[in-house]
Amino acid sequence: MAKPKIGRRTLDSYAVKHISKTIRPGDCVLMRASDSSNPSYVARVEKIEADGRGANVRFHVRWYYRPEESIGGRRQFHGSKELFLSDHFDIQSADTIEGKCTVHSFKGYTKLDAVGNEDFFCRFEYNSTTGAFNPDRVAVYCKCEMPYNPDDLMVQCEECSDWFHPTCIDMTPEEARKVEHFYCYNCSTEDQKKLPTSHADMKVETKRRRR
Questions:
Q1: For residue 103, what are the CA distances in angstroms to 144, 165, 195?
Q2: Which pTM value belongs to this model?
Q3: Which of 7-16, 43-52, 176-185 has the lowest average pLDDT?
Q4: For 133, which of 41, 60, 88, 124 could close a Cys bridge (C-beta 3.0–4.6 Å)?
């Protein structure tokens, strides 16, 4: 007589011994890439299952894509730690997990005092079949009308509150860090516009520091 098939059960958590971490649904994890020369994959754990004996553990995950893995590729405004939450679901074994990480909201990431190796951010969902993003539009800044890249130094006009890249307003990064007041060209007075360089207050958004 054939042995009855043992059903699978859902786990609330699972201790991954080789990294000494407990993983729960909703956690973000680093997973071993198929090519060791590539960075670890990043995924969000959706569900954890095991057989009736608590063995043969499987992680149901939803993959994050890096910009260079998307159809359009990496663009100028993509941050170095930016990820896209994809519609690509998968099942992985526990031994592919290399560690835990944190995928912040875009707003939360920009408020970090320091960015560690396990810190990432996500502001888009990504359709891996069509290459479409949600949302499909985001706020743009500066004369170049580009979305904000949190890795870039930007300066803020006191009058209109728009942000500008120093290179787009004929300013070096060193000058941007020293100037105390800044008004963009449209907000400057006629006398200020006649000056070779009219930089007044500047609120500086510094590059992210690495821990």
A1: 28, 26, 45
A2: 0.81
A3: 176-185
A4: 124
Radius of gyration of the chain (CA): 23
Q: What is the pLDDT of residues 66-105, one digit of tens each?
A: 999 999 999 999 999 999 999 999 999 999 999 999 999 9
Q: Which helix (H) or strand (E) holds 191?
A: helix 190-193
Q: How far apart are the first and last CA of the chain?
A: 60
Domain-located, residue 125: yes
In a domain, 143, yes or no: no
CA–CA separation, 168 and 181 (whole Å): 17
Structure tokens at 12: 């609330």
180 and 109 within one domain: no
Measured distance CA(106)–CA(184) in Å, rounded: 26
C-beta neighbour count of 7 within 10 angstroms: 7
Instruction: Give the residue numbers spanning the domain of 196.
Output: 154-205
Q: Which amino acid is at 153?
A: L
Tokens of 13: 């958590």
According to DSSP, the β-strands at 41-51 and 82-93 are unpaired
CB atoms within 10 A of CB 138: 13
Residue pair 71/88 in contact (Cβ under 8 Å)? The answer is: no
